[in-house]
Amino acid sequence: TNLQQRRREGPAAALLWQKPRSAAQQRHSVTAILSKMAGADGDDSLYPIAVLIDELRNEDVQLRLNSIKKLSTIALALGVERTRTELLPFLTDTIYDEDEVLLALAEQLGNFTMLVGGPEYVHCLLPPLESLATVEETVVRDKAVESLRKISQEHSPVDLEVHFEPLVKRLASGDWFTSRTSACGLFSVCYPRVSSTVKAEIRQHFRTLCSDDTPMVRRAAASKLGEFAKVLELDYVKSDIISLFTALASDEQDSVRLLAVEACVSIATLLPQEDLETLVMPTLRQAAEDKSWRVRYMVADKFSELQKAVGPEITKNDLVPAFQNLLKDCEAEVRAAAANKVKEFCENLPEDSREQIIMTHILPCVKELVSDTNQHVKSALASVIMGLSTILGKDNTIEHLLPLFLAQLKDECPEVRLNIISNLDCVNEVIGIRQLSQSLLPAIVELAEDAKWRVRLAIIEYMPLLAGQLGVEFFDEKLNTLCMAWLIDHVYAIREAATCNLMKLVEKFGAEWAQNTIVPKVLGMANDPNYLHRMTTLFCINALSEACGQDITTKQMLPVVLKMSNDQVANVRFNVAKSLQKIGPVLDSNALQTEVKPVLEKLATDTDMDVKYFAQEAISVLALA
Amino acid sequence: MSAISASEKVDGFTRKSMRKAQKQRKSQGSSQYRTQSAPVELSPLPQLKDAPSTEQQELFTQKLQQCCMLFDFLDSVTDLKSKEIKRATLNELVDYVSTNRGVLVETAYPEITDMICTNIFRTLPPSENPDFDPEEDEPTLEASWPHIQLVYEFLLRFLENPDFQPSIAKRYIDQKFVLQLLELFDSEDPRERDFLKTILHRIYGKFLGLRAFIRKQINNIFLRFIYETEHFNGVAELLEILGSIINGFALPLKAEHKQFLMKVLIPLHTAKALSLFHAQLAYCVVQFLEKDPTLTEPVIRGLLKFWPKTCSQKEVMFLGEIEEILDVIEPTQFKKIQEPLFKQISKCVANPHFQVAERALYFWNNEYILSLIEENIDKILPIMFGSLYRISKEHWNPTIVALVYNVLKTLMEMNCTLFDELTSSYKADRQREKKKEQERDELWKQLEELRLSNPTLVQNNCHGLTGIKRMVRHFGKWAYCLSRSQVDEKIDATLVSLWEIRSYR
């Protein structure tokens, strides 16, 4: 038929839009293509594709981007065959575009397998992704590599060798550093599924890239070294990877050396224990003493992983002194990273010598860090130090750790104090919080009045926990005033948190306690000249009514709320309506009908429209109409 | 403090500049990691000028060795006496190499470079302020500057000494030396970067064998800056050196240099901190174009590709650079690039940010640019007209409106007939554009329906006749399809009919 004939001519005519056009041509693109084609052979079956592709090359970047994000729709409209023969060649040729468009394209192509006809055709996606893997912009390149890794899994072993592996080789021997960088991320996905000759070639390519001329490529290779080692046979790990690892770990650039530290974790995990000492440890020791703080920082940051990877014996002999040095490092960045690991490191020490190592080697360093000159170091330590008490037990905690906790509770930096207070539960389990209470109080009071509202907010959040651990008497005596003072804080977030805090305290200490200690104070604020404080009374009642129960709510709270319905500030009045709606379910039906209903009806005729609205809402929710 | 709390009351936040102003100017020590044990107290040596000439060389060496002792300047109370002795000795050494002839004997070279390396090559410490804003924040100064400054001074005098022999020195001032020197350009201390700039320039001038290496390493630093870290303090200084290097390139330009322009200098424009080195960067670019005008088109295309989308401040800088390029452009090159360029300029004059619009409109004050526009008015006027006409009616800023009127007047005088034609067809053009826009929306709506009606198709369509059938059923009339190729045709036919509907409207 006519249609079939046109179809056959398709690919030839497709050439028309394969070459990127100049701006002048683009201006009248749709019409140009139309007239050209109509003039040539009257083939109108191509119009739609022309239109679709025209969308992909719209002059406006935003429109182009929108179209590329819907590339799957376009492919769907074209069908698998024409996607392969026409759309993909077009895409491969338009690679010079805005990076944003290229990023979207790289992402889309990773999910295109089914749209080109399934795994047997997946290799069609390689040419555009190969070009994308060579562009300058890192984000685009990384996305292209990610998509390539994804579709590599969909290749059959034969296709992998015929199509995928040659692509990796081309990238690995590209002229410009970008393609070589991309290649580094592709070795490990094809290595396990190719023949042994090809494997040998891949190893050779990786080796070459590890000693590349540009530091960018060496960094890429170093960052993939661990991943690549994992897919290699153990013999090759020993013969190939170790020498690469050693070389990268002594690179002239510290940015390369520090990446080797990351690889160290994977490599050490792969090797049998008896080889670690000769193959890995010399390099690791050297990294822990590197003259660049960035490398030492990396060692500190990866310390727990390294510890697990090398096992207990090496930890005892090598890592303990190394860790001590990192804790005493001259750069605060390194000390802070190491301080963060103190608890984890101690936990993972071999049980037979754990206590002895901590007491003689780690604790002296920790003691020094408590009075470090840098606040980040101190606060990193404060966030983990309490965890040591469970490891060391009651006696050691009281004798050795308690003085440190107390010192940190008095630290000048609020973050340090907060970190201690937020981890009190660990200590509570071991020695009980009362040991600390004398020092805790001034610390809490000071944080409660800190000039930064976020600090105040943080301490409020720990109040219910503290109250539970310190007991009701201590609380009434020392902390109650603080909790009430927060209700009139000038920051709304603090007043809100304080209200919520009261509710949690009542849940902990019971209704009777509430009636005696907090309800009178809360209700007293209803007469405050500041309308914000009067509203706080209402917010507290909302929060407390349920926990306090029907009796207190009806007898003490309700009269105050009803009285406030005459407040001169509309905000207070409509909050009365909201409060009545909230506490209604707690009240008995008699009180609802005789007391609440008349007040709400009155508010429903208020002059202020918001008051009216909320009163009507309350009436309908409480079914009083 | 009172000023701060007053502003705090307004919005609860202190302004960054105020917060910073409270801080003292900070200084920082270098990250010396156990490079030596505690300093030994120095004892003063006799003055070089007092020594008999036979012993001078020996004394010179001793003094160089003495200056290898490093001190902790963060601790301002320890080693005061030794620090002073080293300072005086360094001063004397600077004096000695700058005023005396015949002091640079071959055996002195290793001692000299050893002293220099020990003092200046160090790992730079972590930045005190991780979100350091070079425009607003005070830089952290190098604490050991009293000594380091003199060592740099000494290095400079050493290189400039008339007896200095690169053929001997190249054994010590080698690739490794240069690499470490380049890393120091990341120093936050502007005084240090300034010395480094002069020193690297001297080395580039004297060591021919290191030139290609230096250029390559600068390349690497820039690429790391652009694509990896976005942080390097010495970009401006390195560009300044490159500016004079480019000046000396021989013609025709080597491929390596062109690649540097297109793959390094142009992408440098994407940096967030462009304002810190834009002047130097633009200078380098213009230097290239003056050497080889055929590079104009790719350079301008590159700038258009990286044209800022949200940062008006950067957009003004780009416009400035474009004007600098247009100042030196050849008319033949201008013709090649005028259309894409003026499309961008047309967007700029319509920018709601008045500084961007103003900067673009200032092009019309430039005599040379004006002559280029006049020569190509047939091409440029249709591109510019729409924007200018619209903002002459719509822009919020009266200065811009006034400027636009002047520009429109100038353009009208250049080609009155074309101007009239454009004015009369303006409305119709807008309507046509609007209609085109609607048609696009329509097309996408149809495509979207096609997709939505086949949620399973995306997963199934390789062996998914069921999916295709469902899709086809959506189009109603082809309920009985037999093969996949026929289905493809049906879909095409649908789109054909969609297209026809659109074009008849």
TrEMBL record, chain A:
Domain of life: Eukaryota
Protein's UniProt keywords contain Repeat: yes
Keyword set, alphabetical order: Repeat
GO molecular function: protein phosphatase regulator activity
GO cellular component: cytosol; nucleus; protein phosphatase type 2A complex
Ranges for domain Phosphatase PP2A regulatory subunit A/Splicing factor 3B subunit 1-like HEAT repeat: 312-393
Xref: PROSITE patterns: HEAT_REPEAT
Pfam families for the chain: HEAT (PF02985), PPP2R1A-like_HEAT (PF22646), VPS15-like_hel (PF22956)
HEAT repeat intervals: 48-86, 125-163, 202-240, 241-279, 280-318, 319-356, 362-400, 401-439, 440-478, 518-556, 557-595, 596-625
Domain Phosphatase 2A Regulatory Subunit A helical residues, every copy: 125-306
Family classification: Belongs to the phosphatase 2A regulatory subunit A family.
Name listed for the protein in its UniProt record: Protein phosphatase 2, regulatory subunit A, beta b
Organism per entry: Dicentrarchus labrax (European seabass)
Upper classification of the organism: Eukaryota, Metazoa, Chordata, Craniata, Vertebrata
UniProtKB/TrEMBL annotation, chain B:
Pfam families named among the record's database cross-references: B56 (PF01603)
Family to which this protein belongs: Belongs to the phosphatase 2A regulatory subunit B56 family.
UniProt-annotated stretches for the region Disordered: 1-56
Entries under SUPFAM superfamilies matching the protein: ARM repeat
InterPro entries documented for this protein: ARM-like, ARM-type_fold, PP2A_B56
Cellular-component GO terms for this entry: cytosol; nucleus; protein phosphatase type 2A complex
UniProt biased composition (Polar residues): 27-38
Organism name: Dicentrarchus labrax (European seabass)
GO biological process: signal transduction
Protein name: Serine/threonine protein phosphatase 2A regulatory subunit
